[in-house]
Amino acid sequence: MTLDEKTIQQLAAHLEDAEREARAVAKITDAHPHLDWDDAYAIQASIRARKEARGSRVVGLKAGLTSRAKMKQMGVETPCFGLLFDYMSAANGSEIRMAELIHPKVEAEIAFVLKQPLRGPGCHVGAVLAATDFVVAAVEIIDSRYENFRFDLASVIADNTSASRFVVGDVAADVEGLDLRTLGLVMEKNGEIVAMAAGAAVLGHPATAVAELANHLARRGQEIPAGTYVMSGGATEAIPVAAGDAIHVRFQNLGSTSMRFV
Ligand code: 0L1
Ligand code: MG
């Protein structure tokens, strides 16, 4: 850690205000170049406390930057982890209001819902599959609070990994008999295919992202509780959207998710 508690709380307020006011700000490492990952997760935790004090609640967890496509797009090499709050959940087929966002992008993900808690260290794909109640299709709408989506890993962790909105599909599938590595998905924007991938794009197997989340939380004395909804990270690069755009993602075996930006 390099920052004191007062600075952590100031930076949390700065980033959360930017989110609530849909306003882009400079990446925080410009002013705090030595800010490390522990500082960044402490800022994220402080954002959580601010939202909970206002009545929001955490309804899921997310892994980000888990595919080569995303790492290459953002110029980073390490996954990151964030929090999904109740107000971020949008119904499948719903409208997403651009006025509440800065410069959203969409990414297609496979999400897990757990029936048992997962605790690291040493959590692995097998443990995740054994603890999974079902998997569902999901689309994450990310919206970095940083100008032009320009950031480094510490800045983006502090900004709750650009979490903004998410849409969950309607088909809950048992992992038994489903090979999540070869499960394909195709994303269309306004009827044109803009991205496609298979589950293996996410760290070789999307359950690996969930295992890495459990191992990350274990380093902080925490676990993933039973019942948690976990997004495993975009299998494709993130696609920018604007008002009027319609997104439709077809997932093999998991149905489809769609939304319209207004
Ligand atoms: O969910 C994600 O992969 C996003 C992580 C943060 C980086 C970004 O905003 O693209
Ligand atoms: Mg994501």
What does it look like?
The chain is α+β, with helices and mostly antiparallel strands and 262 residues long. It has a single domain, classed as Alpha-Beta Complex (Fumarylacetoacetate hydrolase, domain 2). The chain has six helices and 13 strands. The chain has helices at 5-20, 37-53, 68-74, 125-131, 153-158, 206-218; strands spanning 58-64, 80-85, 89-90, 95-96, 105-114, 132-142, 163-168, 184-189, 192-198, 229-231, 239-240, 246-251, 255-261. Strands 1, 2, 3, 5, 6, 7, 10 and 11 form an eight-stranded mixed sheet that branches. Strands 4-13-12-8-9 form a five-stranded mixed sheet, with no helix packed on it. Helix 1 packs across helix 2 and helix 4 (125-131) packs across helix 6. It is globular. The termini are far apart. Bound molecules: hexanedioic acid and magnesium ion. Magnesium ion binds at residues 62, 64, 107, 109, 140, 142, 231, 233-234. Residues 62, 64, 107, 109, 140, 142, 231, 233-234 line the site of magnesium ion (MG).
